[in-house]
Design brief:
It is built from nine helices and no strands. With 155 residues, the chain is an all-alpha fold. The protein is elongated and about 70 Å long.
Amino acid sequence: MTDEAKQALRTALKALSRRDHSEWEMRRALQRRGFSPDAVDSVVARLLEAGYLDDARFARTFVESAVRNGRGYGVRIRIELLRRGVAESIIEESLGTLADEYEESALIRGLLAKRYPDFDPRSADDRQKRRVAGYFQRRGFSPAAILHVFRDRGE
């Protein structure tokens, strides 16, 4: 391993000590730091072989974190993972697991109670409903699930 590759490996391991990264993110980060394509390829191959880079694991933890912290669901998570270079097949698998583990309506109810504790669809005007629905849509929740929760809370 060349000196440049050793330095790139140290840089990559330091980044991975802070948080998990996708393969694409790691390649991009090393390229931005000025490492040669050969050094980047060598380091990424080594990290993949050692199991330090795993896009499937990255996607699973990203999805769980996003849902647990209220940062998104569905479409929003898909977009974020695509931006991080995760393959569509891995995203589909991760989102399938998400749907199995978390009910969309239950997540909306929990966020609604936390973010808008005084919101009542029966007494809210159209402007308030649009604002709250927009909040959930921007986080990737489906309009059907949002309306379902509004109807349930309104009865």
